[in-house]
From TrEMBL:
Domain of life, source organism: Bacteria
UniProt-recorded name of the protein: p-loop containing nucleoside triphosphate hydrolase
Residue intervals passing through the bilayer: none
UniProt cross-references to InterPro entries, sorted A to Z: P-loop_NTPase, YhaN_AAA
Gene Ontology molecular function: any one: hydrolase activity
UniProtKB keywords: Coiled coil, Hydrolase
Coiled-coil segments on the chain, per record: 181-242, 269-300, 392-462, 499-526, 599-671, 854-969
Residues in YhaN AAA domain copies: 1-205
Source organism per UniProt: Neobacillus massiliamazoniensis
Amino acid sequence: MRFDHLNIRAFGHFTDYELLFDPSKNFHLIYGPNEAGKSTTLRSITHFLYGFPVQTNDAFLHSNTKLRIEGLLKKANGQELFFARRKGNKNTVLDGNEKPLNEELVNEFLNGITKEHFLNMFALDHVRLREGGDSLLQSGGNLGESLFSAASGISMLRKVFEDLEKKSGEIYKKKAQTPRLNKLLKEEKELAKDIANCQLKIQAWKDLERTFTESKKKIEDIHQQIKALRSEQEKLKRIKEALPKMAKLREVTKKLVELGEVPNVPENLEGLREAAQSKQNNAQNYKQRAKQDLVELEDKLMKIKIPEGLIEQASLINDLYLDLKNYQDNLKKLPLIQGEYKLLEERVLSFMKEIDSLQAGLDNIDLFRLSAEKKETIRALCKDQPLLEQKFENNKSALRALDDELQLKQEELAKITDLPDIHELENVIDIVKRAGDIEGNIQKLEIQIEEKKNQINEKMRHLPLWTGTYQELVELQIPRLMETVKKFEKERIDFLNSLQTTQKQIKFQKDEIEKHYERIAELEELAEIPSDDNLQRVREHRDKGWKLIRTKLQEGSLDEQAEAFTKGQAIETVYEDSVRNADHVADKMRIEAEKVGIKNKLLTDIEKFKKNIADLESVELVTEEELDKWEEKWKALWRPAGINPLSPEEMREWLEKHTQLKELVQNLKNDESTLQSSFEKKLHMKQALMNVMSKFVVAKDNQSLDELLMIAERYQKKINGDINNQNNLQDGFKEIKRKMENLTTVKTEIKEKMNRWEFEWAKAIEGTHISETTRPTVAESLLNKYEETIKAYDELQKVVNEQISLREQISYFENRVKELLQVAPVQYDEQHFDLVVNRLNADLQQATRDNDLFTSLSEQCENLKARIKKAVSEWNEAEETLNGLFKLAQCDSIVELEQIERNVQTKKEYESKIIEIEEDLLTHGNGRSLQDIMEEAKQIEHDSIELDLEEIKRKLEDLEPQRSQLEQEHGVVKKEYEEKILGNNTASVLGEQKKESLLAQLSNLTEQYIQVKLATALLQKGIEHYRNQNQDPILRRASEIFSRLTLQSFAGLSVDYDEKDQPVLMGVRDHGDKVSINGMSDGTTDQLYLSLRIASIERYANENEPIPLIVDDILVHFDDTRSKETLKILLELSKQTQIIFFTHHARLVEIMKEIATDSTYQITEINSNVPLNV
């Protein structure tokens, strides 16, 4: 795809500004100075393809609704798409007929590329170029990232990875405390523990629950009694209120029956009767008034008289009356025309006499007419004569001036002596200049070497564990593989983590033992709880006493052990006490069986914790021994280098600093080698200059190369100036000779033209009153006299024609009046035709008015007759209506009909009243039917209703204090019940609700964490896939471009592997040395990124429909040499895809003209849409 043209109709400060892209060229350099509108044009391309943004700063001249950009896109297969883009919310793409166009057609031409993808991949400026170079540095030259970044245009790819890693770390990090997910996990664990502690214990609330249930049952019973009494109370009140309404209903029903039978007539009977009577009265009155009006109109008709035949001639009279003004004007104008004719005749004769008095007469007018050709010929010859004379004089002056200049050139040329040959000197100067600023480079290298030495010494001062020189440091035998250090680091972390975990577990076991002892103390606060060991001890003490008693019974005496058992008391007493004590302990254990079980469980757990502590302390000891062995291996690893290492983390940082120092030392050696080569090159160039200069000027050994070059160039410039001066004089001499020959030829041609003019002059004046000796100025004056004569004669002829026309019009008008008078019904005086026409017109107007009045009065009479007939008809219709009403009401007069109307109204009122009472009863009947309400009232003794209500009221007043007392007592129990039971459950429920909220947050954060991690993995996988698919072709082409952009400072690119065995990009010098991305300058990294970018675009264009590359001043940091090479590469790229290069640097326009022909590119200056090289 390519742009064929872009028309900025209304955008920014542009109005109807068109950019034409030559279809035969694919590289378009668009130049414009600052503030010319380059940035606006760039934005217009993006807005044209993808639409205007919601907010734009380009609507300061044209309003938002007027913004518009048009253009023509063309595919490689020749398919074209013209469309216009306007600002709006929908239908923003229009075709050539201003009709909406489907946006998908534009997307198809763009290969479905989004706006962001287009800006990243196919739009490049110096900022994106610098960001791309920085991205290469940040990635350390990682091959996959470098290729993907250049191909996609995402310059800060490493920052994307860092942002993803930072975002995932903010959500969750292993063994950390502050990330949000870690905090929520800890909070959820603590909440689960709190919920478990809030579980209710059964034994504490059995009695409370029983009391609560019983009191609740009593309250429900008394509520049922109160409810029944209130229901009966409401029923009696309802019947009490309904009794008067029922009595009223019976009374109205009785009146309705007494009214008797009423005819079935319409509800609006009274209205129908009154309307019919009113209609009869109105019809009668209207009929009488119409008859009176009819008599008056017929009298007026009899008085109107119209002359016969006058109206039939109305058309002719009107036409004459319209032409009357013209007739009167013509009568006045005729004498004036005759006077004008006399004046013009005298003027024509006067002109003719001035030219030729002998032939002055109107009959000879044709002798004074000259053809247009003859007049124009004479005028042209009059103009040519002075011009020819002037040319002849100018030619003579120019020949004299050239002859003088020729003499001066000959004298100057004779003064110039023979000039020396300086070709050898020029060759040596060219060789020295192509070698570049050698002395400047030497100075820069010396500064760089000193800076690098200072940098190395500075880094050495900050490198711990080393006090030797940097030369010894780079030769030091240290662990080379970073993975080895990482392995030791991991082992140390594992040992420390294991040791820390073991110590935490020991502390946990000890804390649990302490908590268990505290729990046992809580159980024994009110009374000591015996354990199985206590029971075993008291039973053993009891059994020991029995054995002593049995021994005494068998042997008759006690042994020495009895003294220790009895402690001086009677054996029987001591034994009885031991039996009672054993029974007491056993009873105590039976009574406190639950607490005994808890205590035994706690004691068992304590023993288990103690065993666990012993096992964990053994593990702790083994781990400490393993950590000591690890430390010995770690020190042994560094012993060959004589270094007592710090921790692996610190030594990994130490190794990185060591690697950086080695690279700096290697760069220092490279610079020192380059410096030595530069010194040798300088001496060689200096000697070559001195050898060749010795032939022309004196050169000193102590002069620098730059000074020698300046002297040589100055001498070269002087000799070349002399040569140029000599050549210019010789060329000027030849040019003067050529000009003199040309002037001599021109002089001959002028003489020939003057002879030809004299011949044509004699021929042109033949047949006129101009002689051959008459001067051209006099001849021109005579021509004007001829023209004035003919012009005056033509005006005279117009007056004659106008006089004839006036007379014909007057005669025509008078003849028409005469014809009218022959057929008119009246006679008139024919001497003054204008008065006759006025009189006829006045009579016609009066006759017309009378005729219109007669017609109008006749129509009114007819209307009155029709209205009288209609009134009679309406009276009859009303009579029929009244007869129909009599029949319906079964009566014969208006009086009877009016009485029936009153009966109908009374019946209607009774029926409405009955309905109203019944609806009122139903409304207050609590959903009962009217029949049920009546039956319910019959079952009640009406006179005892008041007494029943008083009894119910008394009972309710007795029950209410009982209910209040019970509810108060129940409220106390309920409060305790809820506090001890429902309170814990509420805490559990609230805890569960909070836990659900935490789990929802955990789910959300976990999903976010997975998304971020997946995004990182997918991006990495995409980068690796792109690298595997495109590494070889893109890297091969990028290597060639990179070598050219760096002016062969680098031979190309290669792939190496870092300490993580990851492929990285390396620059390759001519001698094979490899330079990492970190070792390149900013300018070089920019050139590397540009190389990769161009190679990626070439590959895309080869495999897809090409997309134009939009470039905006990417060469601002490039010198002229690199700018030339870059433009050459872009010209090559333009063979595959269109390139639109914007710049405000005039120097790039000059460079473009130096490196390419007009047929390969197009230059257009903004605000001047004419290409500069067209």
